[in-house]
Write a structure and sequence with these properties.
There is one protein chain. The chain is α+β, with helices and mostly antiparallel strands. It has a single domain, classed as 2-Layer Sandwich (GTP Cyclohydrolase I, domain 2), CATH 3.30.1130.10. The protein contains 2 helices and 4 strands. Strands 1-2-3-4 form a 4-stranded antiparallel sheet, covered by helices on one side. It is elongated, with a radius of gyration of 16 Å. The N and C termini lie far apart (45 Å). 22% of the residues are buried.
């Protein structure tokens, strides 16, 4: 297929915004095994999924003081995603996306999250299939 398509990565969003005090936190191309799928041959046979996230995070303007507790920690987000993908069978990529979105929105500073889930090994002649969602904090 020659050149790698840029479509596999979420198009850059204009999330970071000084006027609205929004910081952009992102995770790119996290590839994990996941027991996912509705078909019998998919049950109990983990598949690779690629996960991309964009988070709009409130930046209250206070100094960060170079302290981890003053930001959304992407290591914590990745750890939580790993726990979700290893917590038993999931039928739909949509369900996986919703679980990840809800986990991200549990952080009080996370206002919006965009999640893209791609199954990488479904079709021999297709790089990936999946879903992308965007969710906003209710609070």
């Amino acid at each position: 297929m020659g050149e790698v398509s840029k479509s596999r990565v979420i198009e850059p969003l204009r999330i970071a915004n000084a006027a609205d005090q929004v910081r952009h936190v992102f995770i790119r191309d996290l590839v994990l095994p996941c027991d996912i799928g509705v078909h019998p041959h998919e049950q109990g046979a983990p598949q690779r999924v690629r996960i991309n996230l964009d988070l709009a995070v409130t930046d209250d303007g206070n100094p960060l003081a170079d302290q981890l507790e003053n930001v959304v920690c992407y290591e914590d987000v990745v750890t939580r995603i790993r726990a979700i993908t290893s917590d038993g069978h999931i039928n739909l990529v949509e369900t996986l996306a919703e679980r990840i979105a809800q986990t991200c929105l549990q952080h009080p500073d996370c206002d919006t999250v965009r999640v893209r889930i791609e199954k990488l090994d479904v079709f021999e002649d297709v790089e990936s299939v999946g879903v992308e969602i965007e969710r906003k904090s209710i609070g």
